[in-house]
């Protein structure tokens, strides 16, 4: 499904992933270019232990490299930790990088931030806590509610650089 480039604000357009703008400073022409498209195949093949190992190694290496790139910062970096697979994997990769003595700008220890809810149907804090215990990270929990959300909505939109 293709989404619209123009967001909530008239004539303000989102730059989608794998896309860049090039501005010709002589003519003022602005060109948009898609520099990457994910290759997809619906073909099936038989399971192969060796190929599975290669894919597993490649995915792990790419994830570690991706997290390493995003740790480059002039201010300490933390992790939004929901307790789900994605954020838990990121926290685990950072922990792994620290154990390997790879310098990261995180301050004294990795800092994690979790939105917790009193209704257990929506709360994943138990999972996040497991990750915190395994990684030795500092854990900051917030308990959002409607009133706080409305008070902080302007700051949230400003921080995200776009309405969400």
List keywords for this structure.
two-stranded antiparallel ribbon; single chain; about 160 residues; globular; alpha/beta
Q: List unreliable stretches of 5+ residues.
A: none
Individual helix count: 4
How would you describe the oligomerization state of the chains in this entry?
single chain
Radius of gyration: 20 Å
Instruction: Bin the helical content.
Output: 25-40%
According to DSSP, the number of beta strands is 5
Instruction: Report the sheet with the most strands, covering strand number, pairing sense and barrel closure.
Output: 3 strands, parallel
What spatial order of strands do you see in the largest sheet? Answer: 3-4-5
SSE ordering = EEHEHEHEH
**Between the first and last Cα atoms, what is the distance in angstroms?**
18 Å
Q: So what's the overall shape?
A: globular
Provide the β-strand percentage band.
5-15%
Helix-strand makeup class: alpha/beta
Mean pLDDT score, rounded?
88
């Amino acid at each position: 499904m293709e989404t619209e480039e123009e967001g909530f604000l008239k004539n303000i357009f989102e730059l989608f992933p794998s896309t860049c703008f090039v501005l010709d400073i002589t003519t003022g022409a602005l060109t948009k270019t898609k520099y990457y498209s994910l290759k997809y195949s619906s073909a099936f093949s038989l399971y192969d232990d060796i190929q599975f190992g290669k894919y597993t190694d490649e995915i792990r290496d790419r994830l570690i490299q991706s997290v390493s790139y995003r740790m480059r910062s002039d201010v300490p970096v933390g992790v939004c930790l929901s307790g789900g697979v994605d954020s838990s994997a990121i926290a685990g990769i950072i922990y792994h990088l620290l154990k390997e003595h790879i310098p990261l700008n995180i301050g004294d220890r990795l800092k994690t931030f979790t939105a917790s809810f009193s209704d257990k149907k929506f709360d994943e804090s138990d999972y996040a806590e497991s990750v915190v215990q395994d990684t030795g990270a500092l854990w900051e929990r917030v308990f959002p509610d409607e009133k706080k959300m409305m008070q902080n909505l302007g700051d949230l939109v400003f921080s995200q650089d776009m309405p969400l």
